Amino acid sequence: MHPNQEQFSQEFPKFQLKINNFILNQNFTQKTKEYTEMFNQMASISPDDMKEYAQKSPAFLKARNESLELMERIVAIHLELQELFKMDEESLGKAYEHNLNAVDEKIAAKLKEAATLLHHFNIASEKGRKAIERADNPFLI
User: Rounded to an integer, what distance in angstroms lies between the CA atom of residue 84 and that of residue 96?
Assistant: First the structure.
């Protein structure tokens, strides 16, 4: 057994516990489900249903499309992490050359990216809500 493999095998149970605690403490599974449902709802709205707002407010359509793209990427990241979290010791060891630091760095980078995208999603969604509000109220400028 390679020294990295041996150390990896010794540290894997602690790593697995850390992952399980993260999933539990951050409601990761629930958030993944919520983001997936939100994306599916957003994607299922037909263009005809948005036609009126798209005509009244091009800003709405732009914000809607941006929100949809951002949520799609957030869901993809969560699903990637979910798959990584499910990996057993052998699969994870092979995928990351028995280097748990590399796994930690990958997870941290993905979580940071998802958080940034979520922030941008909230901004785009707010722009969309304001565009709808303006389209519905002729007295708002």
Answer: 11
Cα 101 versus chain centre, distance: 22
Other beta carbons within 10 Å of 17:
10
**CA angle 18-23-28, nearest 5°?**
150
CA 8 to chain centre: 28
Query: Which of the 8 DSSP states describes residue 45?
Result: S
pLDDT in tens, 32-54: 999 999 999 999 988 777 777 77
Burial of 121 (0-12, 13-18, 19+ CB in 10 A): buried
Cβ 68 vs Cβ 60: under 8 Å: no
Q: How far is CA 53 from CA 46, 59, 137, in A?
A: 12, 9, 12
**56-85: per-residue pLDDT in tens?**
777 888 888 999 999 999 999 999 999 999
